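Q: Entry one of two.
A:
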Amino acid sequence: MSTATPAPVRSAEVVREYGPFPAAPRVHGVSHDGRQVWVATDGALIAVDPASGEPTRQLDRACDAGTAWDGKHLWQIAGARIEKLDPATGEVLHAIPAPGAGKDSGLTWAEGHLWVGQYSDRAIHQVDPATGAVLRTIASDRFVTGVTWVEGELWHGTWEHDESELRRLDPASGAVRERLRMPAGLHVSGLEWDGAELFYCGGGSSGKVRAVRRPRGG
C-alpha cells in the first residue's frame, strides 16, 4: 500500500492574457528571452512585449510545437527536427532530430541541454543539443505539453480530458510535488518561466498566451 503524500493542488492564478495575434490562430509553444515572450504559431515565431502585449517582431519559420531560449539563440521544433535559430534573422544555424520524430510537444533549455516533452508518451527527454541524442527520460502520469525549469525544479503543462494543469515534478523520480489547476476551459499548449514571478502558458486553439503567477512556498 502506497504511503506517498498526495501532491498539493492549488488553483492557478491567471494574471493576464495576451492575444490572439493576427494570422496566428494557434499557439504551439512559448519561451522568454529575459525581455520578451516568444510565441510559436503555425508559421511564425512572434515576439511580444509583455508590458504592452503588442507584437514587436516576427520570424517566419515552421513552428509545430515548443520553442526555447538558450541565452543567445532560439530553438524551435519543426516537424521531425529541432532547429537552432538566429533570433535576429530567423536563419537556421543547426538542426538535430527531434526525439519524437514529429510527435513532440514542449521544449525548454536548462543545464546546457534541451528538454523535450512527449505528449502521448507522457515523458520528458533530456537531449544533447549538438547531436539530438536522448540522455535520459523522466516519466509523467499525464500527457505532457510545455516544459520548463524553475530554479532547479522541473515543471510541465498537461492537457488531458479537457483539463489542464501545471505540475512540478521531482526530476529524479518523476513524482508529482505540486499541481496548479487551470480554470475550466483554459488549456496549456506551451510553458515557460520568465525568471521571476510568472509562468507563460500557450493557450492552444484560443490563440492566446496566459501569464500565471508562480506560487511561493507550500
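Q: Entry two of two.
A:
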Amino acid sequence: MYKGFSKKTKRLEQLINKKVSQVFEQSGVETISYSSFSVLEYLETHQDSNVFQKDIERALSVNRATASKMIKLLTKKGYVSQKTFSEDARYKLLFLTDTGRTLYQADVKAASNLDRFFNDVLSTEDFEAFDRMYEKLEKELSK
C-alpha cells in the first residue's frame, strides 16, 4: 500500500500555486483564483449566447451561493457586468466587460508561460502518465 499520497499531492499543490503566482507576477498580470478565471473563460467562450448564473453553477459544478459570491466579486472588480433579462426581470444576463476580457487574455498568455515551464521539466511520457492517473482519480473522486 502506498502511503503519503495525500500529503504529497497537497505539497505539490502548494508548490504549483507558488509557481503560478511567480509566473503571473513576472508577466505583470493580476493573479485571480482558478474559479474566477473559470467564470471569465466561460463568459468569453459563450459570448454569443445568453449566460445566466445557473449556467455558471452548472459549468463549474458549484452551488447557487458560491456562484453568486463569485459573480458579485467579479462584478465589483469590473470584470463582469449584469443586465436584466428582457423576457424575465428576475434573471440577470452576465457579460464579460472589456476589462474582464483584457484580464482573461493576459491570464491565458501567462498560463502559456507556465505551460512552457512544465514542458521544460516533464517529458511527453510524464504527461501521458499524469493524464492516465488524473483521469483514473478524477473518475473515482467524482462519484
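A: Comment on entry two: The first strand starts at residue 80 and ends at 84. DSSP finds six helices and two strands in the chain.
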